[in-house]
Design brief:
The chain has 14 helices and 21 strands. By secondary structure, it is of the alpha+beta class. The longest helix is centred in the N-terminal third of the chain and has 18 residues, at 90-107.
């Protein structure tokens, strides 16, 4: 599905260079190209390419677009007539039809043309382990960004008075992100929506619509929306319900406090009173991840400010005056970025959009029944003015500009991120040791095995995401300061040690040279293993001894992983030459 945008003056949906030249010929793609929603009509109507919609449709088909969805604009009756009359070469149409039929054969649609219904559908889609898998997903996505010891809650904390504040605390619908089943149903009540296939299903009356104060975001805090959750997920608890069920000895005092967007402070008083009367405070923070007019972020729902809404920033500062321990739990489709949260919260748990088991996963993490082990998949900026900000930037840019500029930082901000790529804390500690690199020099068509031992040096079980980064230290082109080559998530009991081994093909460090050919270049490759892109624990190097050029389709994108678990007793040889340890068992 090509994107809507233009590259070098060509709409991607009508680019023969990209869809046939790059995608099919160079990369070897042999599937279907299907238009993004309305993309063919967009070529003419929005990007003003083609004298009319029919000409735009022909340009897209010539480029290699096989299907226009959801309804014909360019692939119209008029285009059909031109093929039928012989004005256009039928070979072009045959090519698209052949690819469509091939895809249908591959999918088995000729043998089984109709979708399952009723009990047959439920049997295929619903399984006994579905909820456990959803809970696992919610737990493993949690990222502990900050913790000064406030988490996990101690036994004594679970018998105290806890203030639970924020719009997400008593609304489980805010656990679900865009394009979920729940979100799709919510969109049918939107004054304005852009979701494919649901436009105009219900449509609310714009004259009577409620909005989040001070914004144009439609409020979803009504019985109509709550009924959707009860119908779809009747067992889905809110955070408030989960905490009251799991912490029966605690007094949980809930207050709404502030909305998901805007600067409204009209409900601060009740919430601040709850804060002042409590022993500790849990703040739910963030926006409404979804689609259409009731979301504060999502596809096509954009904002210029990447930080928490002003009302939430203000409340954090006022709550901090109480001197009470403050714990923040962030829900949204984008990561938290907040000066107030960094300055005043004692702990920050990033929960994203954790779905139907979100409350259970969050409470598990709060009380220590589950030790968060997630890591950030993005670099988080302080301010929109820093963007783009990413860990694998080229040498000489971002926070590696060196002496190329007069000042290493902005006048009002650092160049570095608020949170680095790969960052995530734990309730335990991990040590890294014994970096092992199987070869000091490899052929451009060869590979090298890289390993390290990771130990749990803390007092509780935990999960660590071991991250391998590679650096082309000096090259014929400007290269990234580092690139993630591989990672694995391992669970370790206190005192347990595991050896993690990656196999790295030389082509993993290939790059496009001046002639736009994929080059594996001789030279030294730096090796870094650690807990984040900046929390590097072990370093080393190997060399590629010769140059080679390869096809882009043959390039390796990630390291092959082998997890080697060292046994504390017994001696079983793994059978791997030069493994780096004799008392181990390889688990692939």
């Amino acid at each position: 599905m090509p994107s809507y945008n233009s590259i070098n003056g060509e709409p991607v949906s009508a680019s023969r260079t990209l869809l046939n030249g790059l995608l099919r010929e160079e990369m070897g793609f042999d599937g279907l190209c299907v238009s993004d929603y309305g993309a063919v009509g967009n070529v003419h109507q929005v990007q003003h390419v083609g004298e009319d919609a029919v000409e735009a449709g022909l340009l897209c088909m010539q480029a290699g677009m096989d299907i226009e969805m959801p309804s014909p604009a360019g692939y119209s009756e008029e285009l059909k007539r031109r093929f039928a009359s012989g004005e256009l070469d039928g070979v072009l149409l045959d090519q698209a039809v052949l690819r469509v039929l091939t895809a249908k054969f591959r999918m088995g649609l000729f043998e089984h043309p109709y979708a399952l219904e009723g009990e047959a559908l439920r049997e295929m889609v619903c399984h006994s382990g579905d909820r456990e898998l959803s809970l696992q997903s919610a737990r493993e996505s949690l990222v502990l960004l900050k913790n000064n010891g406030a988490l996990p809650l101690k036994e004594a904390d679970r018998r105290k008075k806890i203030a639970l504040i924020g719009p997400h605390a008593d609304c489980a619908r805010k656990f679900f992100g865009g394009y979920t089943h729940l979100c799709m149903m919510e969109s049918t009540y939107a004054v304005a929506n852009s979701i494919a296939g649901v436009s105009g299903v219900v449509q609310a009356d714009a004259a009577t619509i409620r909005t989040v104060p001070g914004t144009n975001i439609q409020s979803d805090e009504t019985e109509v929306f709550d009924a959707i959750l009860r119908r779809q997920k009747p067992a889905c608890r809110s955070l408030l319900e989960e905490m009251r069920a799991r912490l029966p000895e605690a007094e949980i005092c809930y207050a709404y406090g502030y909305p998901v967007a805007g600067a409204d402070e009209s409900r601060f008083a009740e919430a601040l009173q709850a804060v002042n009367e409590a022993d500790l405070v849990i703040l739910t923070l963030g926006g409404k991840h979804g689609t259409c007019s009731m979301a504060s972020m999502g596809e096509g729902v954009d904002a210029s400010n990447i930080n928490l809404p002003p009302c939430q920033e203000a409340f954090i500062r006022k709550a901090a005056e109480s001197g009470k321990p403050l714990i923040g739990v962030h829900f949204d489709g984008r990561p938290i970025s907040s000066d107030a949260a960094d300055a005043y919260l004692d702990a920050i748990l990033e929960a994203w959009s954790p779905a139907e088991c979100g409350a259970e996963a969050v409470v598990d993490a709060l009380i220590g029944a589950y030790n968060p082990g997630g890591k950030l998949p993005v670099s988080v900026a302080y301010h929109a003015g820093q963007i783009p900000i990413y860990y694998n930037h080229p040498y000489g840019s971002a926070w590696h500009q060196g002496e190329s500029i007069g000042f290493v930082n902005y006048v009002d901000l650092p160049h570095t991120p608020r949170y680095y790529f790969g960052h995530g804390l734990s309730y335990t500690t991990f040590s890294y040791s014994d970096l092992w690199i199987s070869e000091r020099e490899i052929d451009a068509r060869g590979s090298v095995r890289i390993g390290a031992e990771v130990s749990n040096t803390g007092g509780c079980e935990g999960e660590e995401v071991v991250q391998l980064y590679l650096t082309d230290r000096y090259a014929s082109m400007t290269r990234p300061v580092k690139e993630l080559a591989g990672f694995t998530r391992i669970s370790l009991k206190p005192g347990e040690k595991k050896r993690v081994v990656f196999e790295v093909q030389a082509s993993l460090t290939a790059f496009l040279d001046r002639d736009m050919r994929w080059k594996i270049e001789k030279g030294e490759i730096g090796v870094e293993i650690g807990s984040s892109s900046e929390d590097i624990r072990l370093t080393g190097a190997y060399s590629v001894k010769n140059d080679a050029w390869i096809e882009g389709r043959d390039r390796t994108f990630y390291a092959i992983l082998q997890e080697v678990r060292r046994e504390t007793d017994g001696q079983q040889d793994c059978g791997e030459k030069d493994c780096g340890g004799s008392d181990c068992i390889i688990k692939e």
